[in-house]
C-alpha cells in the first residue's frame, strides 16, 4: 500500500510543485495520474523513487516511512520498484538481451538466474525473436517493450511509468498499455503518469487528476476529462 499524507514540495525557486497532497493506493491497483504540465505528476513519482524529498508531509510505502529511511537502505528499497520512462533510456551499445540482463547484473544475480529469467521476460513482452537486435534496429514500441522488460526483470512490487507512451503513435501506445494491464493482472501495482485523455478513457481505470500541485479529482473508473 502507498499512502501520502499532506505532502507538499517547494523547490528553491519558490515553485510549489505539490500542495498538501493526500491519497492511498492499494496493493494491485492500476492508477492513472493525469494533468497538464507543471501539475506535480512527475514530482510525485520522483518522491516515490526517493529522488526528491517532500518539504512537508509523510509518504509510506508498504509500512515504510520514506522520510525516515536511512540512505543506505534506499538501493534495497528501489529494487521493489520498476521505472519506465518516456525516452526508453536503453543502452545503445547492447542488444535486447543484454539491456534486460543489465538490470539483473546490477543486483548481483547469478549467470544461471539471468539465463532463465531474461528469455522468460522477453517472451512476456513479445520480443523473444529479437533478443539479438540492438535498440536502433527496433521500432519505438519495441524499444519501450524492452524498457518495460528491464523494469520488470527483478519482479518489482510497484511499477512507475512516467509518460511511457509519449513518444509513440496511437497503435503502439495502446499496445504498451495492454502490456501494462497484463502486468497489473499478475499482481504488480501500476502507476502511470500520462497526458493522454484517449488512453485514460479507453482503459477505464482509476484516474487521479492533478492541477497546480493538488488533486482535483479521483475517479475510480475513469471518465474524467481535462483540458491540455
UniProtKB/TrEMBL annotation:
Main location (coarse class): membrane
InterPro entries, A to Z: AAA+_ATPase, ABC_transporter-like_ATP-bd, ABC_transporter-like_CS, ABC_transpr_LolD-like, Cell_div_FtsE, P-loop_NTPase
Localization per record: Cell membrane
GO annotation, cellular component aspect: plasma membrane
BP-aspect Gene Ontology terms: cell division
Highest rank taxon of the organism: Bacteria
Keywords from the UniProt entry: ATP-binding, Cell cycle, Cell division, Cell membrane, Membrane, Nucleotide-binding
GO MF entries: ATP binding; ATP hydrolysis activity; transmembrane transporter activity
SUPFAM superfamilies linked: P-loop containing nucleoside triphosphate hydrolases
Chain ranges of the ABC transporter domain: 2-228
UniProt-listed Pfam families: ABC_tran
Membrane topology classification: Peripheral membrane protein
NCBIfam families the record matches: FtsE
Subunit annotation: Homodimer. Forms a membrane-associated complex with FtsX.
Family, similarity comment: Belongs to the ABC transporter superfamily.
Protein function: Part of the ABC transporter FtsEX involved in cellular division.
Protein name (database record): Cell division ATP-binding protein FtsE
Source species: Lacrimispora saccharolytica (strain ATCC 35040 / DSM 2544 / NRCC 2533 / WM1)
